[in-house]
Amino acid sequence: MTDLSEKNEQNENENEQNEKDQDENEQDLRKRRLAAWRASDRVLARASADRRIGERLAALAEAAGEVYDLDDWTDVYGNGVVEELERRTAELLGFPAAAFFPTGTMAQQVALRCWAARTGNSTVALHPQAHPEVHERSAFSVVSGLRTVRPTSEPRLPAADEVRDCDEPFGALMLELPLREAGFVLPAWDELVAVVEAARDRDAVVHFDGARLWECAPHFGRPLDEIASLADSVYVSFYKSLDGMSGAVLAGPSQLIEEAKAWRHRYGGQLFQQYPAALSALVGLERELPRLPSYVAHAKVVAAALTDALRASTIPWSRIHPPVPHTHQFQVWLPYGTELLNEAALTQSEETGVTLFRRWFSPGCPPGVSVTEVTVAAEGLEWTERDVAAAVSEFVRRLDLPALPAERPGTALTGRP
User: Where is the composition biased (Acidic residues) (predicted)?
Assistant: First the structure.
């Protein structure tokens, strides 16, 4: 027994050391990636989280005076600059009131539990690839007492008949616009209107997960307030598209927002001071929001150039999804493992100063297939079709693939891998 106990203890120590080594390796790799991306002269998008603390603070200090009176007092528990952000966001979305939250996870839990109390039904209909189902550790059920049903499992938002024919009653329909995990995809305007009407026919409220709602206007051909008006409440994020530090806003009817603020306090979201996040959000509304339509338009150019360049390469098949992006973000699928693709992308950044792809992932992919997300923002506007082709050529060269065969049966792939 003593020998067995010693053996178990030894195995536990080895496992702990292996986990520690893995964490250290991942941290080293992260620093390597950040250094390469920061040093790159050419990128399609430069994320705020790629910057050093001093750079981020300096940029905020330089821009903040353009959007708010810096002689005003700092906020305390949500007044001052936070209230101004809430007011401006509510106005942009066409709602009478809004509440600032430290995270979208908290904002949406609060919104849906408030609606559950009003409808008397704690069931939420949403897509299985929606953010709460994939990235929030079952927070809806574990923390907020909500349960979910899924009108569809197709890699798109649900259709009107799927909502209308859902075999379980639900009090709220939650729609993520765009649906990120499926490729930042959106329905057509008429389809969205029909889905909302189908939910209303079932006496359900409609909530938009609008973390990236800001860039949806070009696809729908409608202003933000008209899009938001379809829903009973809307959540928007400030760091995903607007380059803010953090934070989210829940917008909706005044009574709902007052109740949401009470729950925000209960959930631990009543922070003492939030002026850096609020100021960076205001800067994003002022600077980035007007530029988003140009990003969306150029993403279509970049996606088309990627399609042509990858098809002309030695890669047996590739997939741009959606083929014509709905927003300024889209997916690229390739038939290789993440280790090979990530090393090729990173060495390209380090050796050429050009970052084409950032990180590749395999969860949810078939064996031997990986996917990456491409974002086109301000610096991406400078890329021409020739620039994209040259970057693809450099990337493929680092994959060390065999020579191009005479015929490649997989080149014309049209479906999702």
Answer: 11-26
